[in-house]
Amino acid sequence: MYRRTLTYTCLLHLFILTLADDTLVKTPLGPIRGLELTDEETGKTVYEFRGIRFAKAPTGERRFRKPEPVDPWAEEYDGTEYGYACPQMNFEEVDDGSSNQSEDCLFLNVYVPHSVTKGEKLSVMVWIHGGGLTLGNGFFYDGTRLAVDGNVIVVTINYRLGLLGFLGIHHSAARGNYGLWDQIAALQWVQHNIASFRGDPNSVTIFGESAGAWCVSFLTLIPSNKGLFTRAIAQSGVAARYLSPGKREVQRFIQHVSELTNCSLDNKNDFIDCLRKTDVAVLLQAADQMQFVRENTLFVESLFGPIVDGELFPDNPMKLLEDQSSPQSQFLSSLDFVAGTVSQEGSLLYMSIMPDLQEHYAFDAMVAIPAKFICGAIISPFVDYYYKGDEKIKNAICSFYTSDGSEDDQSNRAADFYGDMLFNPWTRNMLDYHARPGEGKTYQYQVSKLSPYPTGYPYMPPPSWFKGAGHFDEAIGLFRSNNRKAIFNGTISDDYKQYSRTMIAYWTSFAKTGVPCAGKTSLPWLEYDTKRRMFMEFDDEIYLRQNWKSAMNKFWSGEIPPVPIDEDLKITHDEL
Ligand SMILES: *[C@@H]1O[C@H](CO)[C@@H](O)[C@H](O)[C@H]1NC(C)=O
Ligand SMILES: *[C@@H]1O[C@H](CO)[C@@H](O)[C@H](O)[C@H]1NC(C)=O
Ligand SMILES: *[C@@H]1O[C@H](CO)[C@@H](O)[C@H](O)[C@H]1NC(C)=O
Questions:
Q1: Nearest ligand, CA 284
Q2: Distance from the CA of 84 to the center of ligand 1, in angstroms?
């Protein structure tokens, strides 16, 4: 009897061992073999499933179309290697692995903490990477720390970029928004498959940085996304007027593409068919945004962005937002929402000024950025473009960003302008929209904590005049990793590790409950409302503050008119 029980127990044990092979996951689509890895910092286990295809290759006839779902498979899928990055220009300075690229790039990665088989269902966080909608990939971001420390499942995704992801021509031949459709397809994949990884499809948070945050924000304005996620975190970027290309931009751009590809514009359907047969390298060349920077300026019009397509966006989303009863506003209000920024988003400025431009205006951005440069090279073309060259507006903006103080002060004012033009007033507007009556909770943060790898590291460290945390600094608190690629590769101080753990605790608690909280003794992060405007400051200390950047907000929402919204855009069709 004893022996039999023992045999039985052994057999049972063996059986359980086989069952508990956490690197093999049976999804509704088919089995996937991943990796069992150890988090270096805590010694804890994480299961990683890499390079999972979530849509058919968007190539050939599928170029410039919505992604198609993958067919099920029977054999074990190899989930031990990352997939390719989407086609993009390569810059030596951006050593993020994107040089390994292919048009067949619709892959995602899944990080599961501790065990795939045991325990409760876990909340899911889906990361949408940044890179101006033209650069980057998902696999660069190691979700291990978030998954292990926060006890959530992290999913990182690729989506089509640049012309391949966003060529929309206000015509049925190419409606645009393919990159957004890819993100939606990845979220649908999560709905159908994440339970196999112990994920809870009813507790999904989307989060992203920079262009990833633009996308997060646009996804919150698409009512048909209801059910795909219930929470959203927009880190340094929200939907904004300037992101959606209007008629002028599209017209100029396709003219240019037509010239470079020899694809005739006479018939739009033939034009797009011809582009489907054009080599990716030629398309990347044709889409180089630098060709659209006007002489002696640093003003770039948006060429690729969420566009009115008659499907995801029946009209300019910024217009739909103003109507509190629109389905778009209603959907946004139903979600829990965090939006935040770093203290100096304008760090992007010192990295963006080409040497010939510095020569033309006779300055060295590493030493100082003079007022005459931002007035002449950015504010002036900006006002020409959006406000028909209104001199009063030009002067108002220029004087607001001119400092009476030192050269260092002036340089920071220049950076302020850049950050404000691109991010800050839009963030405040979006928070105000979201704080209107509705179910979802609203939170704001600002990250001022300097990251161990400031923007530009290691190629272009911040100039000595630069003050504050720069664009992307907050992402390092969430995704730093000691074993991946150039910018995350160094050692990290214990102080920053501690800070990062707290940040991860707030982020993942929001993902799980809709309330950002870092443990019972943590400082409560109060909700944002339009009366008190509370926000959490993440600095060396973490504390609550009120009335974020009030002078900036007063200026952009009172002293100059809002950036005008484009004329009504309609989708046209060619006669057959
Ligand atoms: C590039 O990606 C492919 C597809 O995942 C992979 O097989 C290959 O090893 C990668 N090459 C490099 C150099 O990383
Ligand atoms: C377009 O036509 C010109 C002139 O015939 C030729 O030089 C160029 O290589 C063509 N470009 C492409 C992308 O085919
Ligand atoms: C990190 O990467 C940079 C850029 O490739 C390199 O210069 C540096 O030596 C690396 N540091 C470590 C600790 O590997």
A1: 2
A2: 7
Does the beta carbon of 446 lie inside 6 Å of ligand 2?
no
Q: What is the mean pLDDT of residues 328-354?
A: 96
According to DSSP, residue 439 is labeled: S
Asked if pLDDT for residue 109 goes beyond 90, the answer is yes
In the prediction, which pLDDT does 349 show? 95
> Which bound ligand lies closest to the C-alpha atom of 277?
2
Q: Which of 64, 434, 387, 108 is nearest to 239 (CA)?
A: 434
| Any atom of ligand 3 within 6 Å of the Cβ of 490 | yes
At residue 205's C-alpha, the angle toward residues 306 and 505, to 5°, is 130
- Quick one: pLDDT at residue 104? 98
Q: What residues make up the domain containing 144?
A: 2-244
The whole-angstrom separation of Cα 309 and Cα 326 is: 17
Which amino acid is present at 313? F
Tell me the C-alpha distance between 468 and 417, whole Å. 14
φ/ψ of 34, rounded to 5, equals: -115, -155
Given a cut of 90, is residue 460 above it in pLDDT?
A: no
CATH number at residue 140: 3.40.50.1820
Give the number of domains in the chain.
Answer: 1
The residue whose CA has the least distance to atom 11 of ligand 1 is 100
pLDDT at 156 over 60: yes
Between the CA of 165 and the centroid of ligand 2 the distance, in Å, is 24
What global pTM score does this model have? 0.94
Q: Is residue 182 part of a domain?
A: yes
Mean pLDDT of 162-187: 97
The reply to whether ligand 2 has any atom less than 6 angstroms from the CB of 282 is yes
Q: Is the pLDDT of residue 11 over 70?
A: no
Is residue 324 in some structural domain?
Answer: no
Beta-strand runs (E) in 475-549: 534-538, 542-546
* Residue 537 covered by a domain: no
Pocket of ligand 1 (CB under 6 A): 51, 81-84, 100
Measure 186 CA to ligand 2 centroid, in angstroms. Answer: 37
Q: Tell me which ligand sits closest to the C-alpha of residue 285.
A: 2
Cβ 489 under 6 angstroms from ligand 3: yes
